[in-house]
Design brief:
single chain, alpha+beta, 5 helices, globular
Length: about 190
């Protein structure tokens, strides 16, 4: 029984991985950082990240979600203080993981972050919510010195290590399963 299920998963992974012809349609499918900024948190000395991403899921990823495969997206943030006399000081390095899944019985898409779940009727709505990061506290009070200029950077990527094992093989060989954005770099002065 388990061997038959494992063979079926391998066949599904091979079917979805496609071949060289499938890679040519990759050009428009990506994650891109449209904007990113750090804002003061309301009622606190902390700072929060506000970022917007343009996310276009390849057809294979949409099909995988619709068939019940959960996709994990990771937003990474780094704050670095440049120094001329030594290596740059990495002040903050954080990541946040989102889980995008489809529940077939209720026909709803779910976007989960830290146990908090949002429910959507369409995949486009869930991807739209995933593309907006708001209110993420990235700098604690006292972590950044006032008047000092920092280099900040943010990106989003599909986490292939969280996929089921047969799909991890496809993620290595197929660009549809490898969706990182470029780092968006910007200056920040508290």
């Amino acid at each position: 029984m388990i061997a038959r299920l494992f063979r079926a998963l391998i066949l599904i992974a091979v079917f979805w991985s496609g071949g060289p012809a499938a890679r040519t349609a990759q050009a428009a499918d990506a994650i891109e950082v449209e904007s990113a900024r750090i804002e003061p948190a309301a009622g606190s000395d902390a700072w929060v990240l506000a970022a917007d991403f343009a996310i276009t899921l390849p057809g294979r990823l949409e099909d995988a979600v619709n068939r019940g495969v959960a996709l994990y997206f990771v937003v990474e943030f780094e704050l670095v203080r440049p120094r001329w006399y030594w290596w740059d000081e990495r002040t903050v390095s954080l990541s946040r993981s989102y889980r995008l899944s489809y529940h077939a019985l209720t026909r709803q898409y779910r976007l989960t972050l830290n146990g908090f779940q949002q429910v959507f009727g369409a995949l486009d709505e869930a991807v739209s919510a995933l593309s907006r990061v708001r209110g993420w506290q990235v700098i604690e009070p006292g972590q950044a010195s006032a008047g000092t200029t920092y280099d900040a950077q943010v990106r989003m990527r599909l986490d292939g290590t969280m996929l089921p094992k047969p799909f991890q093989v496809s993620a290595i060989t197929n660009r549809d399963w490898n969706l990182p954005s470029e780092w968006k770099r910007f200056k920040f002065t508290p």
